[in-house]
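Researcher: I'm comparing several assemblies side by side, and this is the next one on my list. It has 350 residues spread over two chains. Same procedure as the others: predict the full complex and return the structure.
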Amino acid sequence: MRRFSNPFLYLFVLLFLYFVLITSMGELLWGTVPPNELHWTEKLFFGLCHQLPDRTYTIDGAMMAVNTRCFGIFLGMAAGWTFIPYAIRFTAGKRWPILILLAAVLLQIVDYLGNLVEFWQNTNHSRTLLGVLFGAALSISVSDLFLTRNKNNS
Amino acid sequence: MEDEQAMDKAPDSISIGDMLPSATVVGLIFSIITFAISLAVGYYEISSEPSGSLFSASTISGSIICLVSLLGGVLAVWHFVKEVSPYIKLGQGAALGFLTGAVMVILSAVYGEIWSFIDPDYTDKLVEATIANFEAMEMPDAQKDAMIDSVAGSVRQQSSFVSQVLWGIPVSGILNLLTGMVGVKIFAKKEDEETF
């Protein structure tokens, strides 16, 4: 018999991931500050993201708190986590989620290095897209851990 | 005999004390690595001529540090499985990942404080080098000014110990919480009520 385990952990992480996602919107959602001041949302991500304005979505001078790749990762993680209860039936006992995660990590590295040595030039949208893929793969890769089967009832 | 049976399944309650050695060992190693990288790159930037490139050494090291930091949760679970118990539940792995992220943030802030005594001018010199690099970039002045304000402001305002710890733990913790779960999936042994 299969059942969804750790529902509170699932909900806790889900809420936290959405908190991270909406705070990563920075000035787009939480109001602007003068240019020489650090927005409170930028403080949250300071150690994790280089926050270069050139690589960050900006609308009418209001800037996100993280760069486009990080935003994509957070968006992908939140979306992937949301769909865990549905994805679980396709991931249980399968190796493909881990393979997709490895492929997503590899893509990030290849994209980063290719841009660094000027083989190609990535854009804000392409970085976001690859970030979404990596974030979603990360969430989905642990989905089957939320499914348990009691041996006595199987 | 009883001990052997007890080892065949995950303990129902693993205290923070049980997790702390793994979180501390991994957090200590990773924070030393990331701090050493950031210092080495910082001094490299201070001593070198501004290149005017968006891909400065610190941008590259920032990405490496970010990736290395995320591995903390996975490796803390690996250490726990190897040294404490081969069985660890999903929630316990998540907690261990969060703890590891918190330890890394705290230790990195401590190293920063220590370094500010060793070289009190380090932050100012780094900000000046960063501004010089931005000024050498070929881009519109308004965009250049925005980048200078943003980066210089970030470094100066985020340099206090309390600020680094309070703002650093939540996000670093939650990301390592996730990678701690990945660690459970990769390294933990399955128990009676198996996860598949």
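Model: For your comparison table: Chain A touches chain B through 44 residues (CB under 8 Å).
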